[in-house]
Amino acid sequence: MRKIFAALALLGFIGFGAGQTTTILQPLSQVYEAIRQYYLWADKVSDAQLVQGAIRGMVESLGDPYSTYFTPEEYAEWQRSLSGEYSGVGIEITIRNGWITVVTPLPGTPAEAAGIRPGDVILEVDGESTEGWTLEQASMHIRGPEGTPVTLKVRHPDGKVETLTIIRAKIKVEAVRSQYLAEEKVGYVRILRFDEEAPALVGRALFSFPLDELRGVVLDLRNNPGGLLSAAVEVASFFIDRGPIVRTRGPSFGERVYNSRGNSFPNLPLAVLVNEGTASGAEIVAGAIQDYGVGVLVGRKTFGKGLIQEIVLQTPDGGVLKLTTGEYLTPKGRAVQDVGLSPDIPVPEAKDTEEDLDLKAALEWLVSQVPVGVGK
């Protein structure tokens, strides 16, 4: 991380001469002086508040929902959320068409229990319109102490508007769940997020199955909002022997190719469950598997988040700048951003039923791939 900071700082000095930087930032300095001289309550505003506000405004002017400036306190909270444990309702959000939009409710959370769905537009939080909000504004309003209520007015993808009061809880996201489906002789692995522990947990799950009789694997990436790019590459490497897992490109680093780490797991039939909540790192894994033809995607079209973000700068006061630095492509060069991935086996969304139609279709396909008696 320090090397990244150092490189960017060097590029900054090369790109701008001292005089040019001073000229560009002169209006900012003039506004600061005017506030200090004329503002009625100037004594109640600290220099740190003014500087942080100026930085935040600059980043917000990019119009990119994924680029943000964190104050030291916000950065600490963001890091806690990456660890999979925080207090809130349990949703992943983005911005689409200027509105806060749900990527997915996390399984087993108050949001899922309340009926929040992928694609829901959050119109209001506690009676306050979210129009024009940043992701950080929305997160700070929706999260809160465990046991306290928050009221969300949402518009579902079918157009129905509903107001839901949800009690916040301690959210602990279990990255990986697995089980062996003995009747079908199929291993089932569900990945809920790509954090640092996910690759090891996936490997442990895969090699816990009885390989001498295993007919295939179901990899469930439904409602997985993504996570670390490195974790996605490692997980995809369990199923792809060699070659690129993902290609990235951006103005600061050119092109990067992330190759398979090598596959030690048997090349068995593989079905990957996807839906409209499958995003980002989950789409990296699904896209690579689809491109190489080592498995089929089952379900519905994925979310379509094909951008990557990096922490590129830490300010002296501990604030952090996170920017969208590039986009990623599948191994065959397919773009994902705002496009998504289409399933090989489309399955309509289940209506008013507890039956898992996606899993049913995946198991039917897997069983059809192996002749009866194979794998005993």
How do the helices and strands line up, and which of them pair or pack?
Elements lengths: L1 H14 L2 H21 L8 H14 L7 E3 L1 H11 L2 E4 L2 E6 L2 E7 L4 H5 L6 E5 L2 E2 L5 H8 L6 E7 L5 E7 L1 E4 L3 E6 L4 E6 L6 H9 L9 E5 L8 H8 L7 E7 L3 E6 L10 E5 L6 H12 L3 E4 L7 E8 L5 E10 L15 E2 L10 H13 L7
Parallel strand pairs: 11-12, 12-15, 15-16, 16-19
Antiparallel strand pairs: 1-18, 2-9, 3-4, 4-5, 5-6, 5-7, 7-8, 10-11, 13-14, 13-18, 17-18
Helix pairs in contact: 7-8, 8-9
Which residues sit in consecutive blocks of at least 5 with pLDDT less than 50? Answer: 1-16, 372-376
The tally of beta strands, per DSSP, is: 19
By CATH reckoning, the class of the largest domain would read Alpha Beta
How does CATH name the architecture of the largest domain? Alpha-Beta Complex
Strand content: 25-35%
Helix content: 25-40%
The major beta sheet can be summarized as:
6 strands, antiparallel
Distance between the amino and carboxyl termini: 49 Å
Total of domains:
3
How is this structure best summarized?
Helices cover 31% and strands 28% of the residues. It has ten helices and 19 strands.
